[in-house]
Design brief:
Largest sheet: 8 strands, mixed
Bound molecules: NADP nicotinamide-adenine-dinucleotide phosphate
Number of helices: 4
Strand order of the largest sheet: 5-4-3-6-1-7-10-9
Distance between the termini: 20 Å
Radius of gyration: 16 Å
Structural class: alpha/beta
């Protein structure tokens, strides 16, 4: 079955990166990195990742080995090709959200991890997100890259699980409901 899932960390005020595009605030409580907060279980439930160009460029700048074991697709309509050192690690896809999905499904990848604020927003505009696991770091950044933006119509989810980590960090697991009676 096809599905598009999100696993992302936000600030208390809903940002996924700070005013300087930085991610250091993710380590406000670095103990979170020493416990199981569900990432591996989530990754086991997807076939491939689809990330926006900006998120890809952030990952490229990390001074670490390529962090993904699953197939990665990079959405960009401005890039002609990926930098040569990444062509064996990821694949470029172009078009609208639906066109990109069709290309990826045609390659046999159906359960997708959608990553990057603008990309998630464009999927939400087309009602293409089925599941969101959002980990809230309790810090107010006061600005940055927002996870959510305007939508043509409300999109309703139900929360199927909430976990509190380290008595500080809340993680909510939402699934899309298309019929409010469910
Ligand atoms: N907190 C977290 O857990 C977390 C997770 C992921 C990312 N981040 C951070 O979030 C920031 C990146 O997010 P972002 O919102 O700036 O960008 P993004 O969603 O990663 O990338 C947006 C770019 O993707 C391309 N794109 C292709 N198709 C698209 C479509 N259908 N809809 C939207 N974009 C499409 C466009 O690039 P072209 O102009 O090339 O077409 C667009 O500018 C980075 O700072 C990253 O570190 C944080």
């Amino acid at each position: 079955m096809k599905s598009n899932k999100v696993f992302i960390a936000t600030s208390l005020d809903g940002y996924i990166s700070d005013k300087t595009n930085g991610l250091a605030w993710l380590d406000t409580f670095p103990e979170i990195n020493t416990i199981d907060s569900g990432y591996d279980d989530f990754m086991a439930r997807v076939d491939a990742l689809l990330m926006g160009r900006n998120t890809f460029e952030t990952v490229c700048d990390f001074d670490i080995p390529w962090p993904y074991k699953k197939q990665v697709f990079v959405a960009s309509n401005s890039m002609d090709r990926l930098p040569s050192q990444f062509t064996d690690k990821a694949e470029l896809v172009k078009g609208s959200a639906n066109e990109i999905l069709n290309q990826i499904h045609a390659k046999g990848y159906n359960k997708l991890y959608i990553d990057g604020g603008k990309l998630i927003q464009s999927f939400l505009k087309e009602d293409l997100i089925d599941e969101m696991i959002i980990t809230i770091i309790p810090i107010l950044l006061g600005g940055g890259t927002a996870l959510f933006s305007s939508l043509p119509n409300p999109v309703i989810f139900k929360c199927i699980k909430t976990e509190l980590f380290l008595d500080k960090i809340v993680q909510n697991h939402f699934v899309r409901i298309k019929n409010i009676e469910q």
